[in-house]
Amino acid sequence: SEYLMIKENYFCNNTIKTSKYSVVNFLPLNLFEQFQRLANAYFLILLFLQLIPQISSLAWYTTVIPLVVVLSVTAVKDAIDDLKRHQNDNQVNNRSVLLLMNGRMKEDKWMNVQVGDIIKLENNQPVTADMLLLSSSEPYSLTYVETADLDGETNLKVKQAISITSEMEDNLELLSAFDGEVKCEPPNNKLDKFAGILTFKGKNYVLDHDKLLLRGCIIRNTDWCYGLVIYTGPDTKLMQNSGKYTLKRTQIDHLMNVLVLWIFLFLGIMCFILAIGHWIWESQKGYYFQIFLPWEKYVSSSVISGTLIFWSYFIILNTMVPISLYVSIEIIRLGNSFYINWDRKMFYAPRNTPAQARTTTLNEELGQVQYVFSDKTGTLTQNVMIFSKCSINGKLYVPKNNDSRNNNNKDMIDFSYNKLADPKFSFYDKTLVEAVKEGDHWVHLFFLSLSLCHTVMSEEKLEGVLVYQAQSPDEGALVTAARNFGFVFRSRTFETITVVEMGQTRVYQLLSILDFNNVRKRMSVIVRTPEDRVMLFCKGADTIICELLHPSCYSLSDVTMEQLDDYATEGLRTLMVAYRELDDAFFQTWSKKHSEACLTLENREDRLSDVYEEIEKDLMLLGATAIEDKLQDGVPETIIMLNKTKIKMWVLTGDKQETAVNIAYSCNIFEDEMDGVFTVEGKDTEIIQKFCKEEVQTKAGGTWGLERIPEEEANGSYGLVISGYSLVGNAELQLCSLLSRNFLPKSSLLQAGVSEERRGNLKSGCVLLLQACALEGNLELELMRTACMCKGVICCRMTPLQKAQVVELVKTYKNVVTLAIGDGANDVSMIKAAHIGVGISGHEGMQAMLNSDFSFSQFQYLQRLLLVHGRWSYNRMCKFLSYFFYKNFTFTLVHFWYAFFNGFSAQTVYDTWFITCYNLVYTSLPVLGMSLFDQDVNETWSLRFPELYEPGQHNFYFNKREFMKCLLHGIYNSFVLFFIPMGTIYDSERIDGKDISDYQSFSLIVETSLIWVVTLQISLKTTYWTLISHFFIWGSLGFYFCIVVLLYSDGLCLLFPDIFEFLGVARNILLQPQMCLSIILSVVLCILPVLGYQFLKPLIWPISVDKVFERIHQFRRHPEPPRLRTKVKHPSSRRSAYAFSHKQGFGALITSGKTMKFK
């Protein structure tokens, strides 16, 4: 069939691509990325210089082979990573879908779907592309979808087709003849907005977001539906929010680029000095020695000779940054990645899932994280609601040990007497079951209220097997609790609710549903009982219900509120349940007012609210419930540990504000001891903006509008809550900027629209509840300045793209390492945007894991990833770099001192074989052993003292200052290692009276002294000694002497005189007293300053961790007894209120009858 859409060639196909490379562009693109690393570009330039015979003093292959190896290893690693992305893309693109073609349904692949196609989706299938809903199996073409991959919510959303297309139902003939024309907005990333017009049969129909099924949704509770494809592939809203892949480099990589430039500049200065020296020497001496040292034909003057010498020394001194440095870095990163993969303590047995390092380039940055951005649903929580406790008529029903999580199965109530009970439900207080069985009036009324007052849909495909579909998991948990205690919600129509009460089926007439909204924070149902009594049942936030109670309930209310305080301190989500029996005549009068309000065109919501308040009063309190939003194991403990490391925790969630705040308290991101909670509601932008500027300019010292956010300490304990919606404007952002500085007097809060109650609670610190757009205003800098001073930040109602934008804001304004962790497709853009992306392999698919740098199954493993593996990796990399630069500066700069004694002729101090083997053989294993196995403290101390993590956050162990120390250390040691051997053999002779002052003897003495010094230096740096460490360090030293004896042996020198030139030098020199004197003096002069510095540094220039190490040493000598942990209970100033669905409930839909199937 043909569809009157815009021509197909204007649209992309439905193929998605998350990979970077293709067969065609892999080589050039990968090489381009690799040569962005300045060291690789440096070696490439060096290679070209070595190809010029006039200046090359080393063979070209000494650079080509290592460079090719480094580029090849990196390219293979990148190719393997990208191949996994290709495989994932192919898996998605080759999924099957039913496509309407030529009047028949044909199975095709997702990637072949095009704009204008009509496709059929069935229950539990993912949506193929963004499509206009045409019809479905449900009444009025309703379709229920789950949007967890888009916004992180698992509660159901309702979509509805327009009436003109719903009439086609599943008639393939009518669907094939559909010739509508759709005009809509271009592709964008707005998940909650869509505007379009359908022209069909000469009429125009307005299309909005409720008519659109988005890719990433899953069809639920709907047998089938048909849709017209609007956006495909990269144009879909899911892919528009997914973000782009960027090449991630660590801070140390960026620092290395800067240091390479410094070394390059330093190298140029040295070569220039040596070239000037050569020019002076040739002018004053060399010119007159041409009989003995003739100039080459291409050298016409000392200036030309000096120019050539400049480049010769540039090649000789290239070991300032040896290419083996980058080979070693890749090996170290690979080895530390294997430690993560092999860590059994990060293995999750229930899913048989190990931790996985999906990239090997970011290990050390795990030890530098300062900001963690986390998703909520599926990352911090299991999104499983548990009916934990309740209070009925003032009596508490709780487990014996007051914690349902620690109860044994033996204590669990047996619900086998109830054939309709949910087998997955568990409760541990048997007195509640006994009260139900004994017919306690208040207990029965309480559970009857829970079974009637809701908008849950019930489905019973098999006899006695009930499946509840709720808009929020909270409601599902409450109805399931009532079901198990004998009050089973069985079914509903738009006029009735059927409940099985203690085995007896009773039908209640549904008279009205007073639905929930964000202002009311409650919902009510009015029913007529089988005994012809009119009853109103209400549930909602306790702060609201208390104001609606009958005066006779005040004493009961006080008791219940105290119990709710206890619930709130445990992070449970609470609500109150109440009822009222209505007079029939009163209800009839009220019903007429309600009908009139429903028909009002102006201010309908306000009129309805007023009518609701008329009947929702003088309520009789039944009790309260406490629902546990079950966290993943170890989440609160992990966040406490992260807080101790001064890592700031931000939760970026698509969920609603109330739910996000409750979880923040449960996870210890927010605490009851915080100084206050504020909801800023300022609307007069001009007044606040004027006030802000005056205050900031006079009191903040002109910090408004800085490009970088300074490091500031808050004057209290702060938390911040931001909504992704733009409800008010920019006024709140300016106001929050002032609150962060404590410059805002209480009198000004009145101008901002802050209530008297909130103004009265103002203290030194606060939690700010912002309902303003955080990302689209012109005050993002001030928002970030405020947020970065807060202990924790909650961003709710965030789209996937907004999550990434928040991360980018922090990266832009703060020079810190960020980590993002999530489990769903809606977290992919955030994971890509952060410096480090961690994927949780959970219930929401594999998208987050496949796009992550590291993955595991439980949030609690994050503390081990950072505090153990991350800290070790950072420490090892810093030790490696400082030692590697030191040993190569020491090795290379000896050439500089030697130049003043050889006429600046670019002659090397060392034998060619020593130059070749120094980094490759003699010093490679010790430094690799230290970088792979060294531990300053073991994992137990690392977790017990999270303060040890701080040096990485501030990059104490390797920075520009530490690099300069390495350079100065190398200059000093090279000076010692040249002049001590020079002084040792100057005008001296061997034991047999022969002269020892020859170039080869001097070279061997310098080489041996150098090896001894750098070996002892690394032994001083090693803090964790194992058999491998001893073997690598002392074995390499012994191996050096073996190689020297072999290479300088008579046999090799006689067989290959052009290659092995040091005939008999080892035999003649190694046992001479001058050799021993040189080694002893060199070692003493090089090592003593290091020992002195290591002893004095903690005393004169201590850092915070020095005190921690001192405590650890004390604990090792005198272990303290284990501490008895006591749970301190603090009075709660907040209420963890029941989290209704953010949008208006199913009430209007139920009473309209549109959810009922007609037979």
TrEMBL record:
Pfam entry (one): PhoLip_ATPase_C
Subcellular location(s) of the protein: Membrane
Membrane-spanning parts: 35-52, 58-76, 258-281, 301-327, 880-901, 913-933, 966-986, 1001-1020, 1027-1049, 1069-1091
Entry's Gene Ontology BP terms: Golgi organization; phospholipid translocation
Membrane topology: Multi-pass membrane protein
Residues annotated as domain P-type ATPase N-terminal: 9-64
InterPro entries linked to this entry: ATPase_P-typ_cyto_dom_N, ATPase_P-typ_P_site, ATPase_P-typ_TM_dom_sf, ATPase_P-typ_transduc_dom_A_sf, HAD-like_sf, HAD_sf, P-type_ATPase_IV, P-type_ATPase_N
Positions with a binding annotation for ATP: D375, K376, T377, E475, F516, K539, R573, T653, G654, D655, R797, K803, N826, D827
Required cofactor names: Mg(2+)
Keyword terms: ATP-binding, Lipid transport, Magnesium, Membrane, Metal-binding, Nucleotide-binding, Translocase, Transmembrane, Transmembrane helix, Transport
Reaction catalysis annotation: ATP + H2O + phospholipidSide 1 = ADP + phosphate + phospholipidSide 2
Active-site positions on this chain: D375
Primary residence: membrane
GO MF annotations, alphabetized: ATP binding; ATP hydrolysis activity; magnesium ion binding; phosphatidylcholine flippase activity; phosphatidylethanolamine flippase activity
A GO cellular component entry from the record: trans-Golgi network
Family: Belongs to the cation transport ATPase (P-type) (TC 3.A.3) family. Type IV subfamily.
The protein's name: Phospholipid-transporting ATPase
Species assigned in the record: Otolemur garnettii
